[in-house]
Amino acid sequence: MKIAVVGTGYVGLVTGTCFAETGNDVICVDIDAAKVEKMRNGEVPIYEPDLDVLFERNQRQGRLKFTTDLKSAVDHADVIFLALPTPPGADGSADLRFILGVAKDLSGMISHYTVVVDKSTVPVGTAERVHEALAKNLDESLFDVVSNPEFLREGVAVDDFLKPDRVVIGTNSEKAEEVMRRLYEPFVRSGNPIIFMDIRSAEMTKYAANSYLATRISFMNEIANLCEEVGADVDAVRKGMGSDSRIGKRFLFPGVGYGGSCFPKDVQALARTAGQNDYDFQILNAVMAVNDRQRLRIADKIEAYYGDDLKGKTIALWGLAFKPNTDDIREAPALYTIDRLLAAGANVRAYDPEAMDNVKELYGDKITFCEDQYAALEGADALAIVTEWSAFRTPDFGRMQEALNHSVIFDGRNLYDLRRMVEAGFYYDSIGRGV
Ligand code: UGA
């Protein structure tokens, strides 16, 4: 099939590349000419495991092209995916400027039947607004608008796209349904469902899924904090709970709060939608408040440990990205930790396998960036772990003790066995497990 993807952020690029991988003819459009030029020269603009291999292969074989010229892509395409940013506006609701702007442009360009697909996370009712914008200069027989929310996780986005648990499609058109079925069938050969529904429900599904997952995380973070108070071990509790098939084992890990470009924004946007509909969505407000508090949990622990003596102390920080396998630092708990430490007069020596350049842009020389995880420990009074990169899971503890001034670890991701750490002579404070 002939596809255009408008917007080459991480969703757009993964979507375009993976559709090319199943033999479709894909043109990706972006207004950023420098970025398009780089992609034409084979440069993948984001770090996402496996994307480079698929990108290179499909570009070489001529199925994946890049342009700044929307019109040429529209002439080419039978299906146009809108994968544009929806940043939170001043009032917390998603800002639809980009999507509606492109829909308006498309209205003057489409000249044959085209399925226009909302791939971005957009509030309920957006597809109808896209439809209106398209219908301005366009006969309604020439297009259908479909909602197709994405459930990709950063760091495993390619795998998630190629092997989705489910595909959700919101449409009221049989013609569009058939187009979408043909596009996605190769990805669900294992038998996972393509779930067709009305457009508003599809839009709602995305927010409900992300908000539910965020709720699970905030809930577990509260359980963990309470475990610390009552002398229980949240790891044991998590396993005990998660083995109930109604609950399930995944997404029950307490930590330093959820971050990234999705959960914080989507929970806020859904709460906003509720507000606009005069519905007081109480759980969501609590989920956000708990997360605001939890992302400072490690800084709180460090401050409690040092009391007034934190000024002038040096804290090593392992992990800056909001989660492993990405260089993304949007809403990363590490940033909140750094801000608090700097405000208290501490020095920070940081290491992250992928995200250091992004953090350098924000902090410059206010913190020290180190070339590897052990270098970060040199002369530090304590280590704080904020992101669970695999390389942090089985470190050389002897080497750590040699490098650190004191064997003190604040672990926001519960990477190590509590008993072993104590036996090895560490002061080891993690989340929900006692010290
Ligand atoms: C999330 C969803 O998982 C995807 O399904 C969705 O498509 C995506 O948002 C989106 O809307 O685009 P992502 O933000 O990439 O994906 O990351 P997750 O792996 O879901 O992690 C989100 C946050 O929750 C991270 O800060 C992570 O550290 C935290 N988390 C996750 C926990 O604290 N505990 C857990 O048990 C799991």
From TrEMBL:
Top-level division of the source organism's lineage: Bacteria
Family annotation (Gene3D superfamilies): Cytochrome c1, transmembrane anchor, C-terminal, NAD(P)-binding Rossmann-like Domain
SUPFAM superfamilies the record matches: 6-phosphogluconate dehydrogenase C-terminal domain-like, NAD(P)-binding Rossmann-fold domains, UDP-glucose/GDP-mannose dehydrogenase C-terminal domain
UniProt keyword annotation of Nucleus present: no
Limits of the UDP-glucose/GDP-mannose dehydrogenase C-terminal domain: 316-418
Record-listed substrate binding positions: F151, L152, R153, E154, K206, F251, L252, F253, P254, G255, G259, K323
InterPro entries in the record: 6-PGluconate_DH-like_C_sf (IPR008927), NAD(P)-bd_dom_sf (IPR036291), UDP-Glc/GDP-Man (IPR017476), UDP-Glc/GDP-Man_DH_C (IPR014027), UDP-Glc/GDP-Man_DH_C_sf (IPR036220), UDP-Glc/GDP-Man_DH_dimer (IPR014026), UDP-Glc/GDP-Man_DH_N (IPR001732), UDPglc_DH_bac (IPR028357)
UniProt-recorded Gene Ontology molecular function terms: NAD binding; UDP-glucose 6-dehydrogenase activity
Binding site for NAD(+): D30, K35, T86, T121, E154, K265, R330
EC number: 1.1.1.22
Pathway where this protein functions: Nucleotide-sugar biosynthesis; UDP-alpha-D-glucuronate biosynthesis; UDP-alpha-D-glucuronate from UDP-alpha-D-glucose: step 1/1
Enzymatic reactions: UDP-alpha-D-glucose + 2 NAD(+) + H2O = UDP-alpha-D-glucuronate + 2 NADH + 3 H(+)
GO BP term, example: polysaccharide biosynthetic process
NAD is among the record's keywords: yes
Enzyme class: oxidoreductase
UniProt keyword annotations, A-Z: NAD, Oxidoreductase
Active site residues per record: C262 (nucleophile)
Family: Belongs to the UDP-glucose/GDP-mannose dehydrogenase family.
Stated name of the protein: UDP-glucose 6-dehydrogenase
Organism: Neolewinella aurantiaca
